[in-house]
């Protein structure tokens, strides 16, 4: 796998969309654009791992990548909220 500028930009866009969607669904205050990208990218790794354990693997395309990253990002936000107390 090679990282070219188009690939990096695509992953940043997937991370941003997935992180933003996860923040909306989880009804949080959001993490800002950089935080959403980080949540989305880490969520993509978590989602990819979970989906591979379930036997769902292969080329998912752009929309499929967003779905996988979204599922992972929702799981990541749930874990973070469980481990970190709410700020007042």
Describe the structure.
The protein has a domain at 32-82. The radius of gyration is 13 Å and the shape is globular. It is built from 3 helices and no strands. The model has no long low-confidence stretch (mean pLDDT 78). It is mainly alpha-helical and 88 residues long.
In short:
With 88 residues, this protein is mainly α.
Question: What's the pLDDT, averaged over the residues?
Answer: 78
Number of strands: 0
What best-fitting shape do the alpha-carbon axes yield? globular
What is the terminal-to-terminal distance?
44 Å
Evaluate the radius of gyration: 13 Å
Return residue spans where pLDDT drops below 50 for at least 5 consecutive residues: none
Helix/strand-derived class? mainly alpha
Secondary-structure element order, N to C: HHH
State the major sheet. Answer: none
Total helices: the number is 3
Q: What share of residues are in beta strands?
A: under 5%
Oligomer: single chain
What's the layout of helices and strands?
Layout: H1 5-25, H2 32-53, H3 61-83
List its salient traits.
single chain, 88 residues, mainly alpha, 3 helices
């Amino acid at each position: 796998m090679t990282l070219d500028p188009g690939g990096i930009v695509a992953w940043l866009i997937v991370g941003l969309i997935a992180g933003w969607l996860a923040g909306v669904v989880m009804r949080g205050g959001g993490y800002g654009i950089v935080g959403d990208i980080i949540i989305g990218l880490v969520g993509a790794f978590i989602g990819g791992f979970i989906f591979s354990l379930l036997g769902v693997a292969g080329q998912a395309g752009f929309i499929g990548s967003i779905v996988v990253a979204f599922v992972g990002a929702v799981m990541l936000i749930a874990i973070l909220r469980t481990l970190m107390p709410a700020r007042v």
